[in-house]
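Provenance

Sequences were taken from public entries as deposited. Structures were produced by running a predictor on each sequence independently, with no templates supplied. The record for Protein kinase domain-containing protein from Paramecium tetraurelia is shown for reference.
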Amino acid sequence: MQQINQIADHLYLIQQGNNSYIHRQLGESDTVVIKSVFHAQLFMEDDSACHSVHQRECQDLQNEWKILSQLNHPNIIKTQQFIPNHQLDPAGGNLQCCSLFLENASCDLHTLCKSNETSFKIIIKYFTQISIAVEYLHSQYIAHNDIKLENMLVIDRNVIKLADFGFSYRPSYEDLLSKWLPRTLTSYSSPEIVNFRINVVDGEYDEFCLFASDVYALTTALFLAVFQLWMIQYYQLLINQPDLFWQLDFIQKVDSQLMREHTPKQLLENLKDLIEGGLADEYNRITIQEFVNHEFFKYAKQIEGEQI
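Predicted structure for Protein kinase domain-containing protein:
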């Protein structure tokens, strides 16, 4: 770990995973973001496990390159180059890695939300863009499969882009079981994914739609951006007793703050309806088209320019 940090000293570290790093590098003309997977021997003593992890993560990075190369949308991150085996800094060490070069971004939305430098108006603007990007992605019959605030990259105050397509999934070409077995559950994982992971151990599981799971994850991200608290521990209450759920203290606190900022009550009601629709069970959940065209975004656009 220390050796990697020494090699990458001249780069600005944006984000760090288990075996991957995302750096920003200032070039002579443009600033680029470099997403790299280092050889897992740095982190694991078992050579066979090491090779398996490294190979899978390199495959994810290559999958991201292939998918991004086929996409063209103003709110999906653009890729520049994929280098399968190289040294991040030829002048230092002998660490090999796979790297994907992407367009520059200032930070991810999770970091921005934690810094309290967002407003309700900005969140609406960003999720309008991200939802349209997901709609485009689904129109290409691709499920993102890893939507979360950390994978929404802020380019500037007016533009945000969806990133991290390593887990993206094309049902026509890939097997659901092989795609999800290596994955770990997160707070963005839909109930059907959770059930899949629980039941697959016994060899009995139900197929599920990752397009619907994308909508669940997108809605979870919106909820977290607005209310600054994870949905997962309150999910059953929302599903079974929504009227009681919306009376929870942390919800009321945010509502009161937004009302003091002259946010129209109708906009908040529309938001809650959108969240209920996006977090419903798989068969009653709204589609991405319904998400994009929901009254919440329509009403927000209608009152744009006013205080919200």
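The beta strands are 12-16, 20-26, 31-38, 79-87, 96-103, 107-108, 152-156, 159-162.
The longest strand covers residues 79-87.
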